[in-house]
Design brief:
By secondary structure, the protein is an alpha/beta fold. It has one domain: Rossmann fold, CATH 3.40.50.300. Helices cover 34% and strands 26% of the residues. It is built from 10 helices and 10 strands. The strands form 2 sheets. It has a 6-stranded mixed beta sheet, sandwiched between helices. Strands 2-1-4-5 form a 4-stranded antiparallel beta sheet, with helices on one face. Helix 3 packs parallel to helix 6 and helix 7 runs parallel beside helix 8. The longest helix has 18 residues. The radius of gyration is 19 Å and the shape is globular.
Length: 254
Amino acid sequence: MSVLSAEKLKKSFGAVTAAANISLSFDADTVVGLIGANGAGKTTFLNMVTGYLKPDSGRIVFDGRDIGGLSPRQIARLGVSRSFQIPQLFQTLSVRDNLRMGAWTRRDRDAAQDMEQVFAYFPILGQFAHRQAEYLSGGQQQMLAIGRALMARPKIMLLDEPSLGLSPKLVSEIGEIIVKLNREQGVTILLVEQNARMALDVADFGYVLENGRIVMEDTTARLRAATDIQEFYLGMKDQGVRGRRRWKQRKTWR
């Protein structure tokens, strides 16, 4: 049974169609990648799933429940955590207090053990536990955003371009931590990325979004092997007969 499914989601802003019949689903305990260029509709999709935007039509089902009409607060309480492209942190609060804020949906309010677990995944946050968020580096702020999302003990985490603006070394580190969170904590993760290489290395299954439409979907192993993905997303521009560049050909998907 899928933990999250979207069925024919549509969203337009005036004459601009940001989402056109987006349909996808994935099972619990998996990492799913949603890749696409800037403007493909990735953040619009996340905003609909988390209640920040209402779709013009279509359904969103989480854990067997239609959540299309719920507010962001209600959706978060059901077990959906999200990070943003630009980390939405409480800049004047410490790392520790930002993490405490991540546990606001929980009823037990005993988050000390979970906080230590976050510090185990992100040791640098433990070192800077009393530092204000505004004085963290970009990579450290992304780590804090992911750690805060984890504090809610979510059923699913939606990560919006966690690699944005980071060095290759930090991108690799965050990718490794995402895999650990999934395997060790059993958290289902939707990884939304322009960085196709990172997403396809981390995820189990992938979707390709272009102009508000899902144009390809498959296991990430098969997507990495697909000529279209190699040429248009991974930058592998093979030389063909007489030096003709294959990447100049039209994409084969629809």
